[in-house]
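=== RUN LOG ===
request id: a7f3
mode: sequence -> structure
chains: 1
length: 127
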Amino acid sequence: MILFFDRSLGKGLGRTLRRVRGFPATVELHDNHFAQNTPDDEWLAEVGQRGWLAIGQDYRHHLMDVELEAIRTHRVGVFYLWGADASQWEQLRVLAKAWDRIEAVGDTEPPFIYRIARSGRLVSIPI
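=== RESULT ===
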C-alpha cells in the first residue's frame, strides 16, 4: 500500500512514518511530487492514476465538484485524518488505532472517502 500525504498534513507526520521500521506502507509526500500550489483536482488525478491512497486533513474534497469528480474519475481512495490542531503524537496514535481498518479499506476498490475519527473508527463519506 502506498499512502500519499497531502499538503494539509505538512511533512512531519509522513517523514516520521518513513522512519518507523516495519511500517507496513510506503509513504509519499506531496512536496516530493507537486508544487505547493498544485490544485487539488490535479494531484488527486495523479494519485489515482498511480493507484495510491490519499490521506490528509482537508475535509472538503467531497464538497468541491471538481475535486469530487477527480476522485470518482481517477478512482482515488481518500482518508481524512482527525486532528488538524492535534500534536503529531496524537495523530500517530489515531493512525495506529485505525491502521487495521485502513488496510482493510485500502484493499477495496476505490473511489471512496473515509473520515478517520479520533477513536480510530472509520466513517464512510458518501460520494
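=== NOTES ===
The helical segments are 12-19, 40-50, 65-73, 88-106.
Strands lie at 2-5, 26-29, 53-56, 77-81, 112-116, 122-124.
=== END ===
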